[in-house]
Amino acid sequence: MSKLGNLGARLHRGEISYDFVGKRKIWYGISILITITAILGLSVRGLNMGIEFQGGAVFTTPTSMSTSVAKAEEYAKEASGHEAVVQKLGNGSLRIQIAGIDTGKSDEIKQTLAKDLNLNPEKLAADLVGPSWGEQIANKAWEGLVIFMVLVVIYLAIAFEWRMAVAALVALIHDITITTGIYALVGFEVTPGTVIGLLTILGYSLYDTVVVFDSLKEQTKDITKQTRWTYSDIANRSINGTLVRSINTTVVALLPVAGLLFIGGGFLGAGTLNDISLSLFVGLAAGAYSSIFIATPLVADLKEREPAMKALTKRVLAKRAQAVEEDFVDGQSVEGDEPDDAAPAVVGPRNQPASRSRGRGRASGKRR
User: Are strands 84-88 and 94-99 parallel, antiparallel or unpaired?
Assistant: First the structure.
């Protein structure tokens, strides 16, 4: 832990760094590849919409049922003519979910299902969900998503600038697309819990992005008054300065979500936990990635197109070229008698060449 803390301190002070912005084309390529895969998953497999969005019926049996899940699925399919999802609950009862059926036929399905399960129809609880209710939930979710993104763009444009707002919006769309694409590929059911998870990750996704943007804004106040750093250089320093903090907050947030997903959902078979935990887990990871590898490099790309930033970059590069040339001259012999096999000068701190002090302190005062 002490080594990690020391690494974070050195990154924050700028003593060491990784060129995230300089390698942005690699990150863009990776993101495009992942996004295309997610879109293909959505196009080919589609989302497994839950009963809340399709309409249907949910039947719950009494406790301590001896019928297996596979057998109950078979009975439900025969009774309704539709595929059924059956879950064994903690108290031993079965939850039989049949989506896409006409709710008017629910009584007939209930009678047939109760007979197959050797139950009194009165003990088989039935909850009906109309398709219009699910459509209302979907519409409200879309409205909430659009309103959230509009408010985010307006806030970031006021607090920072429009380029950062655009970059943050791109990162958000990137995170949502990847999360929904993985949902389609995995085949988890989309429920209102999934929608809650998707809306929740938007805030987490923006958290790290805003932290980097705030550092970048602070460091670029008088950027055109100096000729040491380009905008991309300072953007890269901002990422490195907040890198360890971003990793720490993401890991701390992912640990309990991973517990819900892998322990609660995987080992305990809690399907409701899967709905929200998968969206949170994927969304948090995608948000941490996009804030480092997408949002800030994209801001640097947009800013470098400005005439003032282009002029600054030209001045910085010219000064660096001049420094290299001066260091090379300082590394040569004053008399110009440097051998042909002399090593090239190394770019770095300028030191007084030893050749200029030769002969000092000798009796004759002459150089040899």
Answer: antiparallel
Which residues are within 8 A (CB) of 304 and not within 5 positions of it... i.e. 6 or more apart? 230, 231, 232, 310, 313
- What's the pLDDT at 366? 44
Q: Judge if pTM exceeds 0.85.
A: no
- For residue 306 the two structure tokens come to 């400005």
Q: In CATH, what number does 2-49+133-311 get?
A: 1.20.1640.10
Query: In 3D, which of 125, 176, 120 has the Cα closest to residue 148?
Result: 176
Q: What residue type is 352 in one-letter code?
A: Q
Count CB neighbours of 319 within 10 A: 13
Express each pLDDT in 140-163 by its tens digit. 878 888 888 888 889 989 989 899
Across the range 232-238, mean pLDDT stands at 90
Domain limits, CATH 1.20.1640.10, in the chain: 2-49+133-311
Cα–Cα separations (whole angstroms), residue 230 to 34, 85, 201, 279, 292: 30, 57, 33, 38, 18
* Cβ-contact 296, 239 below 8 angstroms: yes
Query: Which ranges of the chain would DSSP assign to H, the alpha helix?
Result: 2-13, 24-44, 51-54, 69-80, 106-116, 131-159, 162-186, 192-219, 231-258, 271-290, 296-303, 307-330
Q: Please name the residue that has the structure tokens 């770095």.
A: 348
User: Class of the 56-129 domain?
Assistant: alpha beta
Q: Residue 134 has which token pair? A: 């699910």
Give the C-alpha separation, 80 to 242, whole Å: 56
Helix/strand/coil (H/E/C) assignment for every residue in 236-291? HHHHHHHHHHHHHHHHHHHHHHHHHHHHHHHHCCCHHHHHHHHHHHHHHHHHHHHH
Q: What angle do CA 131, 187, 135 make, to 5 degrees?
A: 15
